[in-house]
Amino acid sequence: MQPLFDEDFDALELIEGALVLNQAINPETQVDWVKVELQRLVEEAELALVHESNEQQRFESFLRLFYFDWGFQGDVEAYFDSANAFVDKVLERRKGIPVSLGAVMLYIGKKLGFPINGITFPTQFLLSVEWPDQAPLYVNPFNGEYVSQHTLRAWLVGHRGPFVQLESKHLETADHPTIIGRWLALIKSALLREEQYALALHCTDLALGFVPDDPYEIRDRGFIYQQLDCHKMALSDYQYFIDQCPDDPAADLLKNQVQAMSQTQVTLH
After folding, report:
1. Residue 229: which domain range?
2. Angle, CA 226 vertex, CA 222 and CA 230 arms, to 5°
């Protein structure tokens, strides 16, 4: 598999980087169709908003178009479905998770000239809208609703505990490699949950292209190899994790796993 690097994503729109990632994981991703569909949506939005002269009202109309007329929505019934993280499936189903819906909305919104950016808030992906001489507004891409700073702090408290404070760093515009890295982790988790191990293996290989020799990623790759009956490679990855992270609680569990697998290997031979 061709490795991907941060600079591959820096020059791309977020949705374009996501497509590169999606296709690297699953070559059957409908990249060409996505590009045509995105352009169609941009043109439809331009026509729908052509008579709206006030930019802020125009943005409100865009939100209604995206979530009500087009019917995009967060997948509340199957949030962790891997389809929610592949752009072609999101456009087909009009369902997704914050980062995938946000990437679509961000692409179309920027084409329409709106001052929007992506934020990797600790709990989920957000969009910021910054009008001149006004405080930034924050949009939850999952449902298109504005989120107050009070709600953002409540999310943060639920995620990190009661003593955490909402800081400006939590609301900074994120670079595309950072967003793509989190997107990759979400896809891998979904594929592992669905036992799609061959595709999940692509995810670990890509992740190791970003951070070579990451012991936790190599541990996960060992698990995938084990599920694919590649026991020798699984043993090697598990042993690497044990050697690099001897004090991690998972290391003791893996030592037992390695011992049991080694005995099985000896028995088979």
Report:
1. 213-268
2. 100
